[in-house]
Amino acid sequence: MGSIPPITKNLLIINVLCFFASIAFASHGIDFDELFGLHFFLASHFRPWQLFTYMFMHAGWQHLFFNMFAVWMFGRIMEQTMGQGRFLFYYLTCGLGAGLMQELVQVMQYWYLGFGSFEQVSLGGTLVPMADYLNRWNTVGASGAVYGILLAFGMTYPEERMFIFPLPVPIKAKYFVMGYAVIELLSALSLKGDGVAHMAHLGGMLVGLLLILYWRGGNGKGSRRGGYRSYGNGNSSWDGLRRWFSSLTKKKEPHIDVTYGGRYGQEAAYRQQKKEEEEELNRILDKVKKSGYDGLTPEEKRRLFDITKPHS
Fold first, then answer.
1. What average pLDDT does this structure show over 11-39?
2. How far apart are CA 34 and CA 40, in angstroms?
3. What is the DSSP letter of 44?
4. For the domain 6-229, what is the CATH code?
5. Where in the chain is the domain with CATH 1.20.1540.10?
6. Mean pLDDT of the region 1-6
């Protein structure tokens, strides 16, 4: 299985520490959820930093366990694929996007129900001041960032087969992600409130989708940054979107090489390295044909020697 990469490990540690800290401080009358959970922005308890801190708060053991299990299971793979810096940026941005989506949904609910014209609201027969009621709109949890990780895994390794309880057969990652998205959408549209921020989950997936499509097709140069390769040679994110939807209907190799997972990852990385060397060699030889060997830069001469020399 290998060791847990540093960003994933630190995310697990921070979330667990925050959970234990919330329990410890609660015994002294300090409510971490009130301080660091994401309040509705029109509520008096809202603070801007809550858009980031809310994703490190959790409502209970079960909430914490399932989120951190997903971070451990999929986050370590995506960190090895993306690189540490980009994975952390992706995780936090998906969490931020989920928080903003939750705020947008609450704004729509606030105006649709006409809460702006009420001074009190009835809860179980008890009249509660509207200011106190709005402060109860409080969101906690890393689920938005987790759903972004799930989306990234499904888009990066769409053909990877996964065993999902209680299904008796393995399911491809791309269908797993699409199924989760459909379930969340149907749950969000349900009239029955279950206390789960389903639209925030979808917000994390949406932001993750936009980020990945931008990285795949935004520059069109096949660049590499932080160990994470761009996804193709398109000129826009719309090209990335078109290629992704095409990948859902046909089987193909993932565009990002696996750098984590033993022999398979090593073989994939070796094939990619040989492909890059071949492309670079062709470019240098084309330059030799046009301007001769003396027209090469010292670096190109060194690379030509390194690529063509025999290896044991």
1. 95
2. 12
3. T
4. 1.20.1540.10
5. 6-229
6. 78
